[in-house]
C-alpha cells in the first residue's frame, strides 16, 4: 500500500483506474460463473474476494489518493466489490442448490428394499425347561440348590448308600477324574446335591436342583454323554410317600396340563427305600390308546404311561450319613432327565439337536425369557 498522500499531489494509482476496476470485477464475475462446484467456487472466492485479491488491494490504495479523488475511487471500488460479492452469493446459492439436489438423488433410501435383518439368538430349550421346573417349585416355597459338576466320589456314590462293591455302582458308567484314585468323578446324576443339601442345611429342607451330569455314553439319537437332570429333595418331620405322590402330581399338572397325574412303579435305588419309577399319564392320549389299535399313540407307544424318572423315600442310612436324625426326620426325593422330558413333551426326535447348538432348533421353542 502506498500510504496516505500528504502532498495532495495527483497520484496515478493503476489499480484504481476505471478500466482496471472493471476488468478486475469482470474477471471475478467470470471466475465465479465458471466455477463448476462448491470447491472451485471457494478457490475463486479466495482469489477474487480474499485479503490479497486485486479488489482488496485496490481498496487499500484509496487512501493513497488526494482527498478529491478518493470519493470517486471509493464509489467505483465499492460498486465493483458489491457486484463481485453479489455474483459470489448468487453462484453460491446455485451451486448449493445443485449440491443438495445431487445428494438427495444419490442418497435416496428405498424403504421397500429388503434389508439384512440381524439374526436374533434364542434361549436353549433345556435352559427354558429347567427354569420352568425351578419356577414350579419355588412357587411352593422350595429353594434352588446347586452342586459342582466335578464331584467327590463319596458324595456321588458312598453318601447315597452305593456300597463299594454294590452292583448299583456299575449301573452308571462313570467318568473318573485323573489321577486314578483321586476320589473325584464327573457327577453321574444330580443326586449328590441331595447329600450336599443335607450336609449344609438343617431340616426342614425343600430343594430343587437342576444340573448337568455325565456318563460314558456315545452320542446318538437317544444318548448323550453330557445331559441334564433335575433332582428334588424334601426332609422334614412326618414326611411320607403320600407327600411324594402329591408333589409329583402337582409337578405333572404344572408341566403337562390339567387332569394329568403320576404313577409310581416299584424299583430299586440305593438312596431311597422304598423306591419307584415315576410314570406320567400320557398327556396326548391320556391312556385312551391302550388296547385300542384304531387309535395308536406315538407319544407313549400306546402304553398310556410315559416313563419319566425315579423317586422314593430317602433311605434312613443316607439321612444318617449326612448327619440327619432318621428317628426324627424323614424325606422323599425324585429325579428325572431333562433331555428325555423335552423329547416326549416337545416331540424332539433326535437328542443330537439339543447338543449341536443350531439356533434354528432353539428358536422353535419361542423367545420366552
Ligand atoms: N439319580 C437317579 C438316576 O440318575 C434318579 C433318581 C432316582 C433320583 C430316585 C432320585 C430318586 O432322587 O429318589 O438314575
From TrEMBL:
Catalytic reaction equation(s): tRNA(Phe) + L-phenylalanine + ATP = L-phenylalanyl-tRNA(Phe) + AMP + diphosphate + H(+)
Cofactor note: Binds 2 magnesium ions per tetramer.
Keyword DNA-binding attached: no
GO MF annotation: an example: magnesium ion binding
EC numbers on record: 6.1.1.20
Chain residues that bind Mg(2+): 273
Compartment list: Cytoplasm
Cross-referenced Pfam families: Phe_tRNA-synt_N (PF02912), tRNA-synt_2d (PF01409)
One record GO biological process: phenylalanyl-tRNA aminoacylation
Entry's family note: Belongs to the class-II aminoacyl-tRNA synthetase family. Phe-tRNA synthetase alpha subunit type 1 subfamily.
Protein name: Phenylalanine--tRNA ligase alpha subunit
Source species of the chain: Kribbella flavida (strain DSM 17836 / JCM 10339 / NBRC 14399)
Underlying gene: pheS
Amino acid at each position: 500500500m502506498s500510504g496516505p498522500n500528504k502532498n495532495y499531489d495527483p497520484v496515478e494509482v493503476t489499480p484504481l483506474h476505471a478500466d482496471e476496476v472493471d476488468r478486475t470485477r469482470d474477471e471475478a464475475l467470470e471466475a465465479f460463473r465458471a466455477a463448476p462446484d462448491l470447491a472451485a467456487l471457494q478457490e475463486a472466492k479466495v482469489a477474487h474476494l480474499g485479503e490479497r485479491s486485486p479488489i482488496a488491494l485496490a481498496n487499500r490504495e484509496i487512501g493513497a489518493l488526494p482527498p478529491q479523488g478518493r470519493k470517486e475511487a471509493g464509489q467505483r471500488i465499492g460498486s465493483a466489490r458489491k457486484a463481485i460479492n453479489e455474483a459470489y452469493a448468487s453462484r453460491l446459492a446455485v451451486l448449493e442448490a445443485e449440491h443438495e439436489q445431487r445428494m438427495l438423488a444419490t442418497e435416496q433410501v428405498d424403504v421397500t428394499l429388503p434389508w439384512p435383518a440381524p439374526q436374533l439368538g434364542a434361549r436353549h430349550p433345556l435352559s427354558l425347561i429347567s427354569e420352568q421346573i425351578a419356577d414350579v417349585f419355588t412357587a411352593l416355597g422350595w429353594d434352588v440348590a446347586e452342586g459342582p459338576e466335578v464331584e467327590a466320589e463319596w458324595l456321588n456314590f458312598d453318601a447315597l448308600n452305593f456300597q463299594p462293591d454294590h452292583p448299583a455302582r456299575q449301573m452308571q458308567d462313570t467318568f473318573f477324574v485323573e489321577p486314578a484314585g483321586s476320589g473325584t468323578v464327573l457327577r453321574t446324576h444330580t443326586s449328590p446335591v441331595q447329600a450336599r443339601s443335607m450336609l449344609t442345611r438343617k431340616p426342614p429342607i425343600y430343594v430343587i436342583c437342576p444340573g448337568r451330569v455325565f456318563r460314558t455314553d456315545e452320542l446318538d439319537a437317544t444318548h448323550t454323554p453330557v445331559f441334564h437332570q433335575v433332582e428334588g429333595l424334601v426332609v422334614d418331620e412326618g414326611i411320607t410317600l403320600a407327600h411324594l405322590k402329591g408333589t409329583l402330581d402337582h409337578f405333572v399338572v404344572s408341566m403337562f396340563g390339567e387332569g394329568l397325574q403320576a404313577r409310581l412303579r416299584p424299583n430299586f435305588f440305593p438312596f431311597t427305600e422304598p423306591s419307584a419309577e415315576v410314570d406320567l399319564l400320557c398327556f396326548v392320549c391320556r391312556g385312551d390308546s391302550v388296547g385300542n389299535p384304531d387309535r395308536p399313540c406315538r407319544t407313549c407307544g400306546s402304553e398310556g404311561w410315559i416313563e419319566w424318572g425315579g423317586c422314593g423315600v430317602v433311605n434312613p442310612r443316607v439321612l444318617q450319613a449326612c448327619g440327619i436324625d432318621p428317628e426324627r426326620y424323614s424325606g422323599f426325593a425324585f429325579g428325572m432327565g431333562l433331555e428325555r422330558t423335552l423329547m416326549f413333551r416337545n416331540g424332539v426326535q433326535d437328542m443330537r439337536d439339543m447338543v449341536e447348538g443350531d439356533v434354528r432348533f432353539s428358536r422353535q421353542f419361542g423367545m420366552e425369557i
